[in-house]
Amino acid sequence: MKISIQNLQLKYGSFTAIDNLNLDIEDGESLVLLGQSGCGKTSTMRCIAGLEEPTSGRIIIDDVVVFDSERGINLPPNKRNVGMVFQSYAVWPHMTVAQNVAYSLKRKRLSKAEIDERVIEALTLVGLEQFADRGASLLSGGQMQRVALARSLVMRPSVLMLDEPLSNLDARLRDRLRVELREIQLKLGLTTVYVTHDQHEAFALADRIALLQGGRIVQLGEPRDMYEAPASASIAHFLGVSNIMECAGITTADGSTTARVADGDLLIEASHGETVAAHSPKVCIRAEHLQVTSAPTDNPNSWPGTVRVAGFQGNDVRYAIELEAGPELDALGTLRRGEQHNVGDRVWVAVDAREVQILPAEVFA
Ligand SMILES: Nc1ncnc2c1ncn2[C@@H]1O[C@H](COP(=O)(O)OP(=O)(O)OP(=O)(O)O)[C@@H](O)[C@H]1O
Ligand SMILES: [Mg+2]
Question: Separation of 41 CA from ligand 1 center, angstroms?
Answer without folding.
Answer: 8
